[in-house]
Amino acid sequence: MSVSAKKDKRRRSPRRPVTIHDVAARAGVSTATVSRTLAAPSLVSEEARSRVLEAIRITGYTPNMAARNLRARRSMMVLVVVPNIANAFFAEVLRGIDDELVAHGYGIIIGNLDNLTEREARYVDLVFAGQVDGALLLSGHVPAGNGRLMSEAGLPIATICMEIPGALFPSVMVDDQKSSRQVAEYLVSLGHRTFGYVSGPKGNRNDLGRREGFAAALADAGFDPARISYWQGDFMVESGVQAAHEFLASPRRPTAVYAASDSMAISFMKTVMEAGVRVPDDVSVVGFDGIEFSEFVTPTLTTIQQPRNEIGRTGARILIEALTSGNWPQSVRLEAPLIIRNSTAPPRALGKARRAG
Amino acid sequence: MSVSAKKDKRRRSPRRPVTIHDVAARAGVSTATVSRTLAAPSLVSEEARSRVLEAIRITGYTPNMAARNLRARRSMMVLVVVPNIANAFFAEVLRGIDDELVAHGYGIIIGNLDNLTEREARYVDLVFAGQVDGALLLSGHVPAGNGRLMSEAGLPIATICMEIPGALFPSVMVDDQKSSRQVAEYLVSLGHRTFGYVSGPKGNRNDLGRREGFAAALADAGFDPARISYWQGDFMVESGVQAAHEFLASPRRPTAVYAASDSMAISFMKTVMEAGVRVPDDVSVVGFDGIEFSEFVTPTLTTIQQPRNEIGRTGARILIEALTSGNWPQSVRLEAPLIIRNSTAPPRALGKARRAG
DNA sequence: CTGAAAGCGCTAACAA
DNA sequence: TTGTTAGCGCTTTCAG
Fold first, then answer.
1. Using one digit for the tens of pLDDT, what is the confidence trace for B224-241?
2. pTM as predicted
3. Which end of chain B is more exposed for a tag (fewer CB within 10 A), N or C?
């Protein structure tokens, strides 16, 4: 790390920011008229309005938000709580959220948990402090801290990608179980008989749904779910590598592996391939999420395609509805279809002659 | 007198949030003492302090931020302006920023430009409205709107990943030119003589630096920079695909292609491979950024490794320093080394017998 | 249609 | 050490 010297000389303009009084004075009206010109122009005469607007233009006035928030009791800000901001899956969801929120005049405060429970308290406080008008939870559960739940603040909350059991918030998500069943059925139809599952973090509800849907469909197809190999993961890339090592060390490798996230599926795939295992010849791999890179890895990844942008948009829309209408919108379920690509195939024993490997 | 007209209210009353007055009344002190207990406990007697804390505990009081911000003239919020929140490169940078900011008690307001200039105005207003104490710019230029620059608001700004020409903000970035020279020198040392470059968005300063460093080093090595093939990109995945199609259609394909981002390098690589071009045998590919997936694609990607997390952390630290000390910190340059992986090799003509292709 | 005036909840002089 | 007293800048009755 090198440091490039820079001049320290800089004048911080102590210039007092222009307030509504400055504008009012310049336009020769009261502050009330200025306020109305901005909030309800129709209540102001053509004459006064144009004088005010001119004064605003000249002074470069921008209403102070803290004052406005204090008085109006709303902040036009939404808190978006995300488990891990570096997770590839959330990027596009966030973009959808942002699109919709910005279009409706709301700003976004990011609440990154970084997978750490202790980070929650801060955002609970933020909500109780009236810093935001509502919250969008992608975190799988209601943040808590200082002995209270975020939901107890009583402001609108919507959940994305997960439903909170017993909670009353509207939610937007895909059906993890249903999608996972598709995966299982597809794998079975290919002729696989031994299965592995790379899981999400312990207790994660999405992981639970995916795991259960997978196991249930396999059971329905006559396989003993107890014989599925489970490897503990956390949705992130590193844990896919870890799972791959366990797979490689396993005396009896399954021919089909389902990972609860694309990140894990991709790193799993790469790691076993480097060890000489062929995908899909030796092992078929299926992911979940449909992140951008899933179609640029080799082989391209068979996966469940979550409509990430739409999930974000819809979640934001639901929250905005709650914010503006006052009543709680209905939850939404989005389709997440299985996209078949090149990481899956019939097991080698069926497809080709056996060769030393 | 009877201060509490609504005494029989239940603990959870979202109707009227508890204020500093409630706490003061319950603790039998003035609001000033409550305020001091929170801001400067040492100025309050043991006795009063514990009564206040108890009252806070019982009532679940959380100071109203709008009021505090208005009075104290600071928001403990930082605006982070990012060109595109869905860009894989920024995810980890954001995480670094978040880590540092949260550790110092600041919150993050995300300003996603979505690559759209017209989105800037909103964030300029945010700054002028006093919504944030400072701004972190990853956007390559100073946001403008309504006829003014964000910088004119006079609050601390630091830039990340780019230096704004003529601007005086401290910045943290890697040396694009220097890193790009490494790429060129490496490619030349491998024996390549024909080169292609997949660019970033028009006018982007990082692209400029990378392009110039690349071309300059090639010129130094005796190659005519005018013969480099340039394909227009925008850092995103799709443009790598587009560039690949142009590469494939080219009558005289270069044997080495340098892409200004990993996202483009990865999609470029995949697309040409699907058309039967081998990487690195037929064409070597180098990326820039060192995103997580660059080591999980096939072949693994040779790239410039930006210290993404540290870039974010450092940028945040610089801004915090400006925020707290009042003077402007020095800019920082971080090393971004070339990581050689499997997407690069000597050109086929040198390495192997020539075959029809 | 417009202005005066009363705060929103909090902090910071200034007194006591 | 504590309380009193002004506002921070804005919106919003309530009169006019």
1. 999 999 999 999 999 999
2. 0.92
3. N
